[in-house]
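Sorry to interrupt, but I need a hand with the structure work. Please put the record directly below this note.
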Amino acid sequence: MQNPTPRFSLRSLRRYPAFFLGCLLSCLFLSPIVLEGKSPPVILTFGDSLTAGFGVSEKESYPSRLQEIVRENGYPHKVINGGVSGDTSAGGVRRISWLLKHKPKIVIVALGANDGLRGLSIEEMYANLKKIVEICREHQARVLLAGMKIPPNYGEAYSSEFEKVYLQLAEEMDINLLPFLLEGVAADKRYTQPDGIHPLGAGYEIVADLVWQHLKPMLPENGADNTE
């Protein structure tokens, strides 16, 4: 036979005040407190296959490695991978507004490589990257622009003008610049896949460290930031 379900009443509360007080304190101190409307500040990595992590596992991509570095240095920021393989600067213009729904504090823009490899218009690439920066600023996000270099497939003049785009844009828009995203990695067989462009896991580790060097000065010195 089952024991009858205990019934609590105002009379019981008066007879056993210490018992009920203990239950109340247990609920307050042992139950998790959920603060609504709070979320970690966001860092959006925005780019092509070099950001998406083409050819390696997700945890080996530079955004994932950057997330580990950010946390190890005491920052609460969440790093979001906004990379799409094959994307161009024009494609970036079309999708940046949608990704800004995450309300990032900082956007790391690493686009243009596919424009250069396809020999697309330098002027249009410049205009597209400028538009992306403007849209980010409209959403109160700071920008770290990651530059690129390309092989001289379309001639030295084209390659030179391509590289100048990032420096000119950084100066005109007064934004932080990482001169070359693949510095110390590109064309090095120890760190790249057979195509000589996309990094291996070890290469992305170098990329993440390089990005961190330029990102850290943009973060609060005390490791904190305002939550959304």
User: Anything to note?
Assistant: Residues 115 and 121 are 8 Å apart (CA to CA).
